[in-house]
Amino acid sequence: MDQVRVSILGREFIINTREDRARTEKVAEFLNSYCEQIGQKLSSKSSINIITLAALHIANDYLKIKEDYRRLVKKIESKAIELDQLLTDD
After folding, report:
1. What span, in angstroms and rounded, lies between the C-alpha atoms of 19 and 26?
2. Is this prediction's pTM over 0.90?
3. Which of 4, 6, 24, 11 is nearest to 51 (CA)?
4. What is the pLDDT of residue 85?
5. Angle at 74 between CA 70 and CA 76, to 5 degrees
6. Is residue 55 within 8 Å of residue 38, measured between CB atoms?
7. How far apart are CA 39 and CA 66, in angstroms?
8. What single string gives the DSSP state of each residue in the chain?
């Protein structure tokens, strides 16, 4: 397990991870950039408010993508069944 030091909104965190160091740093950079964008739009500069809003936005995006993925898998499965039927109905 690696320890990776990252910075989010000027605060340092040490992350214990089995993920690749570069991947962990990329995720932290994404989160930091996202938080900075949100912070520019808020009158409150509270780190906890910014990080909470960022987490809510990211969770919402994640759930939408997960739902889209499920729909796409179902559509692919349905098309595969149709194709199989067309190919076997000789």
Report:
1. 11
2. no
3. 11
4. 93
5. 115
6. no
7. 27
8. -EEEEEEETTEEEEEEESS-HHHHHHHHHHHHHHHHHHHHH-S---HHHHHHHHHHHHHHHHHHHHHHHHHHHHHHHHHHHHHHHHHH--
Residue 90: per-residue pLDDT: 62
Tokens of 65: 């993508």
The string of pLDDT tens digits covering residues 9-64 is: 999 999 999 999 999 999 999 999 999 999 999 888 899 999 999 999 999 999 99
In angstroms, the CA 25 to CA 3 distance is 11
What is residue 43's predicted lDDT score, i.e. its pLDDT? 86
For 71, the token pair is 């729909």
